[in-house]
From TrEMBL:
This is 6-phosphogluconate dehydrogenase, decarboxylating. It comes from Mammaliicoccus lentus. Pfam families: NAD_binding_11, NAD_binding_2. Residues 5-164 form the 6-phosphogluconate dehydrogenase NADP-binding domain. Its EC number is 1.1.1.44. Residues 167-287 form the 3-hydroxyisobutyrate dehydrogenase-like NAD-binding domain. It catalyses: 6-phospho-D-gluconate + NADP(+) = D-ribulose 5-phosphate + CO2 + NADPH. Belongs to the HIBADH-related family. The keyword 4Fe-4S does not apply. The lineage of its organism: Bacteria, Bacillati, Bacillota, Bacilli, Bacillales. Keywords: NAD, Oxidoreductase.
Length: 294
Protein backbone atom coordinates (compact mmCIF):
# COMPACT_ATOMS: atom_id res chain seq x y z
CA UNK A 1 0.00 0.00 0.00
CA UNK A 2 3.01 2.31 0.42
CA UNK A 3 3.02 2.70 -3.39
CA UNK A 4 -0.31 4.53 -3.12
CA UNK A 5 -0.27 8.32 -3.02
CA UNK A 6 -2.27 9.88 -0.19
CA UNK A 7 -3.96 13.24 -0.43
CA UNK A 8 -4.52 14.95 2.93
CA UNK A 9 -7.00 17.82 3.30
CA UNK A 10 -6.91 19.74 6.59
CA UNK A 11 -3.59 20.23 8.37
CA UNK A 12 -4.79 21.80 11.60
CA UNK A 13 -4.23 20.78 15.22
CA UNK A 14 -4.76 17.08 14.53
CA UNK A 15 -4.37 16.74 10.77
CA UNK A 16 -0.83 18.07 10.75
CA UNK A 17 0.42 15.31 13.05
CA UNK A 18 -1.58 12.65 11.22
CA UNK A 19 -0.19 13.62 7.81
CA UNK A 20 3.28 13.77 9.33
CA UNK A 21 3.07 10.14 10.47
CA UNK A 22 2.20 9.05 6.93
CA UNK A 23 5.19 10.93 5.52
CA UNK A 24 7.43 9.37 8.18
CA UNK A 25 6.26 5.91 7.11
CA UNK A 26 7.29 6.53 3.53
CA UNK A 27 4.02 7.47 1.88
CA UNK A 28 3.96 10.06 -0.87
CA UNK A 29 1.59 12.69 0.55
CA UNK A 30 -0.14 15.56 -1.20
CA UNK A 31 -1.50 18.25 1.12
CA UNK A 32 -4.04 21.04 0.92
CA UNK A 33 -5.20 23.39 3.64
CA UNK A 34 -7.28 26.55 3.48
CA UNK A 35 -4.42 28.42 5.18
CA UNK A 36 -1.30 27.39 3.29
CA UNK A 37 1.15 28.31 6.05
CA UNK A 38 -0.29 25.56 8.28
CA UNK A 39 1.08 23.01 5.80
CA UNK A 40 4.59 24.52 5.56
CA UNK A 41 6.13 22.11 8.07
CA UNK A 42 4.70 19.13 6.18
CA UNK A 43 6.08 20.41 2.89
CA UNK A 44 9.49 20.73 4.55
CA UNK A 45 9.14 17.07 5.62
CA UNK A 46 8.52 16.02 2.04
CA UNK A 47 4.82 16.53 1.34
CA UNK A 48 3.72 18.03 -1.98
CA UNK A 49 1.59 21.17 -1.74
CA UNK A 50 -1.48 21.31 -3.98
CA UNK A 51 -3.09 24.66 -4.77
CA UNK A 52 -6.61 23.21 -4.83
CA UNK A 53 -8.64 20.27 -3.62
CA UNK A 54 -9.36 19.41 -7.26
CA UNK A 55 -5.64 19.08 -8.06
CA UNK A 56 -4.99 17.06 -4.91
CA UNK A 57 -7.86 14.72 -5.75
CA UNK A 58 -6.65 14.14 -9.31
CA UNK A 59 -3.13 13.27 -8.08
CA UNK A 60 -4.04 10.97 -5.16
CA UNK A 61 -5.13 7.33 -4.80
CA UNK A 62 -6.42 7.72 -1.26
CA UNK A 63 -7.83 11.01 0.03
CA UNK A 64 -8.12 11.75 3.76
CA UNK A 65 -9.88 14.80 5.15
CA UNK A 66 -10.22 16.22 8.64
CA UNK A 67 -11.78 19.67 8.68
CA UNK A 68 -14.01 21.71 10.98
CA UNK A 69 -17.73 21.47 10.34
CA UNK A 70 -20.24 19.47 8.29
CA UNK A 71 -20.59 22.46 5.96
CA UNK A 72 -16.84 22.20 5.28
CA UNK A 73 -17.14 18.48 4.62
CA UNK A 74 -20.02 19.07 2.23
CA UNK A 75 -18.06 21.76 0.40
CA UNK A 76 -14.82 19.81 -0.05
CA UNK A 77 -16.61 16.65 -1.19
CA UNK A 78 -19.72 17.73 -3.07
CA UNK A 79 -18.94 21.12 -4.65
CA UNK A 80 -18.06 21.45 -8.33
CA UNK A 81 -14.38 21.77 -7.43
CA UNK A 82 -14.64 19.15 -4.71
CA UNK A 83 -13.17 15.72 -4.15
CA UNK A 84 -15.85 13.55 -5.74
CA UNK A 85 -15.85 15.49 -9.00
CA UNK A 86 -12.08 15.09 -9.39
CA UNK A 87 -11.04 11.87 -7.63
CA UNK A 88 -9.91 8.94 -9.77
CA UNK A 89 -12.13 5.89 -10.29
CA UNK A 90 -11.34 3.16 -7.73
CA UNK A 91 -9.81 5.70 -5.35
CA UNK A 92 -10.78 5.68 -1.67
CA UNK A 93 -11.96 8.77 0.20
CA UNK A 94 -11.87 8.88 4.00
CA UNK A 95 -13.48 11.68 5.99
CA UNK A 96 -12.13 11.76 9.55
CA UNK A 97 -14.03 14.90 10.56
CA UNK A 98 -16.74 14.51 13.19
CA UNK A 99 -19.74 15.21 11.01
CA UNK A 100 -23.34 14.25 10.27
CA UNK A 101 -24.12 10.53 9.79
CA UNK A 102 -26.61 11.51 7.07
CA UNK A 103 -23.95 13.53 5.23
CA UNK A 104 -21.52 10.63 5.50
CA UNK A 105 -24.07 8.34 3.86
CA UNK A 106 -24.83 10.93 1.17
CA UNK A 107 -21.12 11.15 0.32
CA UNK A 108 -20.95 7.35 0.27
CA UNK A 109 -23.83 7.08 -2.21
CA UNK A 110 -22.51 9.82 -4.50
CA UNK A 111 -19.01 8.32 -4.38
CA UNK A 112 -20.42 4.92 -5.31
CA UNK A 113 -22.03 6.43 -8.42
CA UNK A 114 -18.55 7.54 -9.51
CA UNK A 115 -16.90 4.19 -8.71
CA UNK A 116 -15.17 5.74 -5.68
CA UNK A 117 -15.08 4.03 -2.28
CA UNK A 118 -16.02 6.15 0.74
CA UNK A 119 -15.43 5.67 4.47
CA UNK A 120 -16.44 7.85 7.42
CA UNK A 121 -13.75 7.48 10.08
CA UNK A 122 -13.95 10.11 12.85
CA UNK A 123 -11.35 10.02 15.57
CA UNK A 124 -10.99 10.56 19.31
CA UNK A 125 -7.88 11.37 21.29
CA UNK A 126 -7.26 15.04 20.56
CA UNK A 127 -3.88 16.57 19.85
CA UNK A 128 -2.11 14.11 22.17
CA UNK A 129 -3.54 11.10 20.37
CA UNK A 130 -2.71 12.60 16.98
CA UNK A 131 0.88 13.40 17.95
CA UNK A 132 1.46 9.94 19.43
CA UNK A 133 -0.33 8.04 16.64
CA UNK A 134 -2.60 6.73 19.38
CA UNK A 135 -6.02 7.84 18.14
CA UNK A 136 -9.22 5.87 18.46
CA UNK A 137 -10.67 5.54 14.96
CA UNK A 138 -14.31 4.58 14.31
CA UNK A 139 -14.94 3.47 10.74
CA UNK A 140 -18.15 3.19 8.73
CA UNK A 141 -18.50 2.05 5.12
CA UNK A 142 -17.94 -1.11 3.10
CA UNK A 143 -15.78 -3.82 4.65
CA UNK A 144 -13.80 -4.21 1.42
CA UNK A 145 -12.78 -0.55 1.41
CA UNK A 146 -11.88 -0.73 5.10
CA UNK A 147 -9.67 -3.77 4.50
CA UNK A 148 -7.77 -1.90 1.79
CA UNK A 149 -6.76 0.98 4.10
CA UNK A 150 -6.65 -0.74 7.50
CA UNK A 151 -2.84 -0.51 7.50
CA UNK A 152 -3.07 3.27 7.10
CA UNK A 153 -5.50 3.56 10.00
CA UNK A 154 -3.09 1.53 12.14
CA UNK A 155 -0.36 4.10 11.48
CA UNK A 156 -2.58 6.82 12.95
CA UNK A 157 -4.31 5.06 15.82
CA UNK A 158 -4.01 2.30 18.39
CA UNK A 159 -7.71 1.49 18.64
CA UNK A 160 -9.21 1.08 15.18
CA UNK A 161 -12.67 -0.50 15.00
CA UNK A 162 -14.76 -1.18 11.92
CA UNK A 163 -18.32 -0.23 12.90
CA UNK A 164 -20.26 -1.40 9.82
CA UNK A 165 -22.22 0.48 7.16
CA UNK A 166 -21.69 4.10 6.09
CA UNK A 167 -22.62 6.59 8.79
CA UNK A 168 -21.87 4.16 11.61
CA UNK A 169 -18.47 5.71 12.20
CA UNK A 170 -20.16 9.06 12.78
CA UNK A 171 -22.84 7.56 15.01
CA UNK A 172 -20.11 5.92 17.11
CA UNK A 173 -18.22 9.21 17.43
CA UNK A 174 -21.39 10.99 18.57
CA UNK A 175 -21.82 8.28 21.22
CA UNK A 176 -18.25 9.08 22.28
CA UNK A 177 -19.00 12.79 22.53
CA UNK A 178 -22.15 12.15 24.55
CA UNK A 179 -20.06 10.14 27.03
CA UNK A 180 -17.48 12.93 27.25
CA UNK A 181 -19.88 15.89 27.49
CA UNK A 182 -21.15 15.61 31.05
CA UNK A 183 -17.87 13.98 32.10
CA UNK A 184 -15.94 17.15 31.24
CA UNK A 185 -18.11 19.11 33.63
CA UNK A 186 -17.52 16.44 36.27
CA UNK A 187 -13.73 16.71 35.91
CA UNK A 188 -13.82 20.51 36.20
CA UNK A 189 -16.17 20.40 39.20
CA UNK A 190 -14.03 17.77 40.97
CA UNK A 191 -10.90 19.92 40.57
CA UNK A 192 -12.67 23.04 41.82
CA UNK A 193 -14.03 21.15 44.82
CA UNK A 194 -10.59 19.67 45.70
CA UNK A 195 -8.89 23.05 45.43
CA UNK A 196 -11.53 24.80 47.53
CA UNK A 197 -11.17 22.05 50.16
CA UNK A 198 -7.44 22.81 50.36
CA UNK A 199 -6.30 19.43 49.04
CA UNK A 200 -3.01 18.67 47.29
CA UNK A 201 -4.35 18.37 43.76
CA UNK A 202 -1.56 16.06 42.58
CA UNK A 203 -2.40 13.62 45.37
CA UNK A 204 -6.07 13.88 44.48
CA UNK A 205 -5.29 12.98 40.89
CA UNK A 206 -3.15 10.08 42.06
CA UNK A 207 -6.10 8.70 44.01
CA UNK A 208 -9.08 9.27 41.77
CA UNK A 209 -7.69 8.72 38.28
CA UNK A 210 -6.93 5.10 39.16
CA UNK A 211 -10.36 4.40 40.62
CA UNK A 212 -13.92 4.43 39.33
CA UNK A 213 -13.64 8.13 38.42
CA UNK A 214 -10.74 7.50 36.05
CA UNK A 215 -11.11 8.77 32.47
CA UNK A 216 -9.08 10.10 29.55
CA UNK A 217 -10.42 13.59 30.26
CA UNK A 218 -9.39 13.42 33.91
CA UNK A 219 -5.86 12.16 33.21
CA UNK A 220 -5.09 14.29 30.16
CA UNK A 221 -7.14 17.46 30.56
CA UNK A 222 -7.35 17.64 34.35
CA UNK A 223 -3.69 18.69 34.72
CA UNK A 224 -4.18 21.31 32.00
CA UNK A 225 -7.15 22.71 33.91
CA UNK A 226 -5.04 23.05 37.05
CA UNK A 227 -2.28 24.86 35.14
CA UNK A 228 -4.84 27.08 33.38
CA UNK A 229 -3.42 25.77 30.11
CA UNK A 230 -6.28 26.25 27.68
CA UNK A 231 -4.34 25.68 24.45
CA UNK A 232 -6.57 23.75 22.06
CA UNK A 233 -6.15 20.02 21.75
CA UNK A 234 -9.77 20.11 20.68
CA UNK A 235 -11.55 23.43 20.18
CA UNK A 236 -14.54 24.52 22.25
CA UNK A 237 -16.32 25.55 19.04
CA UNK A 238 -15.87 22.09 17.55
CA UNK A 239 -17.08 20.37 20.73
CA UNK A 240 -20.23 22.51 20.60
CA UNK A 241 -20.68 21.45 16.97
CA UNK A 242 -20.39 17.79 18.00
CA UNK A 243 -22.90 18.16 20.83
CA UNK A 244 -25.31 19.93 18.49
CA UNK A 245 -25.05 17.01 16.05
CA UNK A 246 -25.59 14.51 18.87
CA UNK A 247 -28.65 16.41 20.11
CA UNK A 248 -30.10 16.53 16.60
CA UNK A 249 -29.60 12.78 16.11
CA UNK A 250 -30.98 12.03 19.58
CA UNK A 251 -34.10 14.07 18.86
CA UNK A 252 -34.66 12.09 15.64
CA UNK A 253 -34.62 8.94 17.78
CA UNK A 254 -36.95 10.42 20.39
CA UNK A 255 -34.31 10.22 23.14
CA UNK A 256 -33.99 12.33 26.30
CA UNK A 257 -30.38 13.27 27.05
CA UNK A 258 -30.27 15.54 30.14
CA UNK A 259 -26.49 15.29 30.64
CA UNK A 260 -25.79 16.18 27.01
CA UNK A 261 -28.27 19.04 27.05
CA UNK A 262 -26.78 20.54 30.22
CA UNK A 263 -23.23 20.23 28.91
CA UNK A 264 -24.24 21.99 25.68
CA UNK A 265 -25.81 24.79 27.74
CA UNK A 266 -22.60 25.27 29.74
CA UNK A 267 -20.35 25.20 26.68
CA UNK A 268 -22.62 27.66 24.89
CA UNK A 269 -22.02 30.02 27.82
CA UNK A 270 -18.27 29.37 27.53
CA UNK A 271 -18.47 30.27 23.84
CA UNK A 272 -20.35 33.47 24.61
CA UNK A 273 -17.61 34.34 27.11
CA UNK A 274 -15.08 34.30 24.26
CA UNK A 275 -13.46 30.87 24.63
CA UNK A 276 -14.38 29.39 21.21
CA UNK A 277 -10.76 28.96 20.11
CA UNK A 278 -9.56 27.50 23.40
CA UNK A 279 -9.42 23.84 24.34
CA UNK A 280 -12.43 22.15 25.89
CA UNK A 281 -10.67 22.14 29.29
CA UNK A 282 -11.30 25.91 29.47
CA UNK A 283 -14.75 25.08 30.84
CA UNK A 284 -13.21 25.13 34.32
CA UNK A 285 -12.62 28.88 33.98
CA UNK A 286 -16.34 29.49 33.43
CA UNK A 287 -17.22 27.44 36.51
CA UNK A 288 -14.57 29.17 38.62
CA UNK A 289 -16.05 32.53 37.73
CA UNK A 290 -19.20 31.46 39.57
CA UNK A 291 -17.51 30.45 42.84
CA UNK A 292 -19.11 32.25 45.79
CA UNK A 293 -16.23 33.47 47.88
CA UNK A 294 -16.54 33.12 51.64
Amino acid sequence: MSSKTIGFVGTGVMGKSMAGHLIDKGYEVNVYNRTKSKADDLVEKGATWCDSIATLSEKSDIIISIVGYPKDVESIYLSQDGILNHAKANSIVIDMTTSSPALAHDIYEKAKERNIKSLDAPVSGGDVGAKNAALTIMVGGDQEAYNQVEDIFNLLGKNVVYQGKSGNGQHTKLSNQIAIAAGMLGVAEAIIYAEEAGLDIDKVFNSIEHGAAGSWSLSNLGPRMVKEDYAPGFYVKHFIKDMKLAIEESEKMGLYMPGLLKAKEVYDALSEAGYDDNGTQAVIQLLKNHIKKR
